[in-house]
Structures are given as structure tokens and as C-alpha cells.
Specification:
By secondary structure, the chain is mainly β. Helix content is 11%, strand content 37%. The longest helix has 8 residues.
Length: 225
């Protein structure tokens, strides 16, 4: 699964790298070093006019048919293998895809009875985009726009740590992922373990186990902590 991410790049870097326009009304922008589900996360989606919008979404997809928004707490990830069929995800997969721009993410490696957190990032520390879906839930005067992060099987880097990893899209695939006219068969081909060699990982302190610990020390290598 993907249950914690890091978003600390300055807003201008995100704007330039992903070609986005911030939504009116302001954004809740990092730096976030331990962003957890049910919190607001920066996301990118394509507007009707073709521009890319940068906005905040609630992390944990709330299906439009859900009776209450707390259902989103169980929808923080969507498995790539079943996303086109699952009732909560199949319509967003067809029509409401998004990118989640991150600087890195955490995953926990089981070592006996303990779990050791690792930080995974690009070697050059530049942000990258995860495949996501978004949804709009409304009831009465309340409207919540939420999202989920797609996961797939691990690549060689991640396999010793965990049996899942988030779907990392190549920059040349961003347009196809966001475009409403993209065919499902083509999109499914993008949902695979990341093949690039730009990623690196290292163990970090178990401080990241507690979401309120949200500071640069979370990504400090364990050997330096």
C-alpha cells in the first residue's frame, strides 16, 4: 500500500514541472514531511478547458454513493489490477483521473516482529507524479472532493521492502493519464511497476509512525538520526 507521502517542493517548482494552474481561493501547501490519509493532499487534474489544475483533495476516496464521508478512510489506495472493475473506482478510473505530485513516500519493511520505515525518493530529489483518481461526494450543503492513489506490484528496489508500491508515472505519460478521451486499455498499460532507475531508498526513524511528527527529521537517514 501507499500510506504516507512527502510534499515539500516549493509551489513554483510544482507549477513549472507539471504545467499547472493553482485553483482560485488559495491552496494548503506544504512543506509536508509525513502526510497521512484523511488529510488534504496536493493533486493535479485536467479542467474542461484542457488546463491542469493544482488543488487540495481529501486523501481517501469517498464514492459518490457513500452514505457518509468516513468511508473514504478505507479507500486511500486502489489496486491497479482491479481498478477498472471495483464499484468505488471504476467510474473515477474512466472519467476522473488525477496526478499526485510528491517528493517521496514511506513504506514499512517487516523485520521479525518489527516494522522498519523506509523513505523512497528520486536520487536528484525532484518531485514525481503518482497515478490517482478523484471523486466528488455531496450531501445537503456538504461537498467533499477526495482522491486515492493507485498501487501495483513492486519493482526491484521495492521488493525487499514491501509487496506493493504506488504507480509512478513517467512524465511523458502525464498527458495521457489526465486526458478524458484516453482509452481504458491504454491506461491500464501504464499501471505497472516503475521501470526507471532514478529512485533510491534508505531507512528512517520510526518517528514517521506518528502523523503529528511532520518535519524534515522524518526523512533524515536512520544512520544520521
Amino acid at each position: 500500500m501507499c500510506g504516507r507521502v512527502v510534499q515539500f517542493s516549493p509551489l513554483q517548482v510544482i507549477i513549472e514541472l507539471f504545467g499547472v494552474i493553482p485553483t482560485p481561493g488559495g491552496l494548503t501547501v506544504g512543506p509536508r514531511y509525513n502526510l497521512a490519509p484523511t488529510q488534504d493532499i496536493l493533486a493535479i487534474r485536467q479542467a474542461d478547458d484542457g488546463t491542469r489544475q493544482l488543488l487540495n483533495l481529501h486523501w481517501g476516496l469517498i464514492p459518490f454513493w457513500a452514505k457518509a464521508p468516513d468511508m473514504g478512510g478505507r479507500m486511500i489506495n486502489a489496486r491497479a489490477e482491479t481498478v477498472a472493475e471495483k464499484p468505488a473506482f471504476r467510474e473515477p478510473f474512466r472519467r476522473r483521473r488525477c496526478l499526485i505530485p510528491i517528493d517521496g513516500f514511506y513504506e514499512w519493511q517487516r523485520l521479525g516482529t518489527q516494522k522498519q520505515p523506509h523513505y523512497i525518493h528520486r536520487r536528484n530529489d525532484r518531485p514525481f507524479g503518482l497515478a490517482g483518481l478523484w471523486e466528488r461526494w455531496s450531501k445537503g450543503d456538504q461537498t467533499i472532493e477526495s482522491c486515492t492513489i493507485l498501487t501495483t506490484s513492486p519493482n526491484d528496489l521495492m521488493r525487499p521492502i514491501h509487496d506493493r508500491m504506488p504507480v509512478i508515472l513517467s512524465q511523458e505519460d502525464y498527458a495521457a493519464w489526465l486526458a478524458p478521451e484516453s482509452k481504458a486499455s491504454d491506461l491500464l498499460k501504464l499501471l505497472k511497476p516503475y521501470e526507471g532507475d532514478e529512485l533510491a531508498e534508505y531507512p528512517v526513524s520510526t518517528r514517521v509512525n506518528i502523523p503529528k511528527n511532520d518535519d524534515p527529521g522524518c526523512i533524515t537517514p536512520l544512520s544520521q538520526g
